[in-house]
Amino acid sequence: MEGIGYRELWAADPGAWRAAGAAWRETSALVERRARELTAGAATLRDAWSGRAAGAADARLGGLRSDLLAGRPGLIEADQVLAEFGGRLAAAKARLGTAVALADRSGVRVDRRGQVSADPSRPATAGTGRVVTEVAAGIGAALDAARSADREAAGRLAELAGAAAAGWVSPPPPGRPGADATPAAVRAWWTGLSPAQRRWLVAYESERVGRLDGVPAAARDQANRLLLGQHREDLLAERRRLLDRVPPGPLELAGLRRVEAALAGLDALAGRLAAPEGPRAYLLSVATHGEGRAVVALGNPDRSGQVLTYVPGMTAGLDDVTGELSRAGRVLSRCTDLAPGEETAAVLWLDYDAPDFLHEAAWPGQAGDAGPALHRFQEGLRATHEGPDARQTVLGHSYGSLVVGTAARNQGLAADALVFVGSPGVGVDHARDLGLPPGQVWASTAPDDVIRLARPPEELLRRPLLGASPIGVAVALLDGPDRELWFGRDPSDPGFGGRTFPSGRYGHTGYWEPGNPALDGMARLVLGRP
Fold first, then answer.
1. For the chain, N or C: smaller number of CB within 10 Å?
2. pTM above 0.85, yes or no
């Protein structure tokens, strides 16, 4: 789309570019299937054939499989480039639409070339000249954004084409960042590598790259997508092992339930990652042990002007990762409605062991364990962001608000605003103890959210709550006029010292419902427009 003009931008179809990216993503999946077929074929040959010729054939098949897999990061990267171009093109078209809508409302004419002038058929006003200038500036900004996106995408695709001809990968020099390396140090190491060396690491050290804070989101996404098939194979192997026990005992049955839930969650996540519609998803981390974990971004956080990190609460796990991701997606969608020309990303951060039962959620231990990882992730977002710093907002729901508050208190969070919804307390009694200006600490609690009636854990010991359902009738039994909750003062209480935004009567899990003013409030805070 070299030389994008007014008419070309109007006619551009961002969805077609995303679909083109999806085709490359599907090619990557096809390559994986062919590589698995080579592996199976080689195993069959080894069982039935021996000798020097057999060894040579086995080596050849192994080499073909390695060559196939080495190209997969590049195929996923092509998808990323085209999807991001489609997203930036959509944002440019939204800017253009805003400018033209202003012209239509204000008696200003825009011709087919995008030239702006006063409409002679309509009476001019004292503000007509100002509107002409404003509309012309809006159209110019939209065209500049589209042209910049076009130049960048063309350059990245040209580099990929050159890599395909010259060889996708090249081994990097020895040495890797240690476990104690800061995200900034990891970023510096990564920047010093060539594109071919980075693709080698993605292809052959996927597990390391996929979880390394300080590695850009695009590379982490490539690495973690390469691991999805192996994660599924591991779960299937664990299921077979558990089924081998005849008859299965209680531990095996519990294990089977966990594995089945993880498989369902992993398959649902894979479906969302493959979806051509909506913001492109970036898989920043995934694990299947325990209840399972995942970190998924909608939109590329390294390239967005605003980034939301959403930390879910009790019962969150891999089995419902798409449901939790949809909550982040609703905030992102509302941000797009409010600021259609801006790039925003929303991250689901489920990289901790969330409590499953009420008696677990009544204690802060799991939140404390999660703090260092959340701190490091936020530092990584700062380190890998391109251009000026993004506005970073960290949102915690229910027990997730305690995770956010504990990390802010103990380790500190690279964030411009903290937001708590449906909170049982955040581990401090005043907003000033969270490391941000109190004016950048926000909270909302629905009038009918039963979390309002929770009381500190020591009081729970005096009541028969063990075995109750999550956040259910048990917490609604407690009385007292003060606003001291399980983990400190209610952050929605004026005495906490932060700021609040309203919620309708949607209960403990309804903050993301379309009709709830809390959804609009969260989006405005992400955009920095409370």
1. C
2. yes
